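# step 3/5: fold
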Amino acid sequence: MNFESLTRTEKHILSQGSVFELLRRSPEVEFDENIFHAGLIYDEHFSKVLKGVYESYIDTAVNSGFSIAIGTATWRANEERIRASVFSDRAVNEDNVQFLKDIRANYSRSNISILIEGDIGPRGDAYKPEEALDVDTAYSFHSPQIKALASSGVDYLQASTLPALSEGLGIALVMAETGLPYVISFVVDRTGCLLDGTKLTDAISRIDDEVGANSARFAVNCVHPRILHQALDKNPGIEGRIISFHGNTADLSAAELDGSEELITEEPVAFSRAYKELLSAHDIKIIGGCCGSNPDHIGAIAKVL
């Protein structure tokens, strides 16, 4: 099933937990300083570790009977960073899509659907809205990566961990041109605003106005479920527009987490309880984890779902 039919017919779709943060602290791999975990696919040992992380999340979905969305490890694989990396001669985005396609092929006999999400991130620090690109610059800067992912056969596109409306709008304009389903995922605070101070409702309305009503789907990631719960309660009228959520396991603000070297987390059962409270009040389709989460956290969420 494709993205449109799956999101229309299934009550919930499971998604992966942390990949980047899970591996960043692992002694088993070494990240490229520019494109981070997107380069792991080019090392025989590192690629097996990365494959194992993806498979652990897919196995959780298979065992619980949920379809799952898995995202490419390309959050930092924009054209600028690829040029600065040791992989400048590689088709990094396209190769990461193929990597996930090969993993999906191994589950062809399973009874679930596996969606592949082509993932990008902001140019700057996800917790610093002052580093966000303006609309026109974002459109130009992100176009090569978005087009590379779209041409590689992903099921949908997603821009994750965006701190500001301007960069999200520029990205949405490019993604809309691909004809693929796409999701714009912001970081929000407890007041219901993006980190640049834009109210979430206003950000959605602005993108609707400039890109096309209901063209984009929206998401939130990299905050705890309780923070999203509070944010959504302060943004009435957008029920159904937030299609996806990947939650941190630390109930702390972006300002409190920014620059922290210590991974702050909570136990899977406690995390899943916070998800249960969120989903009892707000209908969100695609459910996964972000910083601090692992397969145990996703398994606990699956039980709640």
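# step 4/5: annotate
Strands lie at 13-15, 68-71, 114-120, 156-162, 182-186, 217-223, 242-247, 286-289.
# step 5/5: archive (pending)
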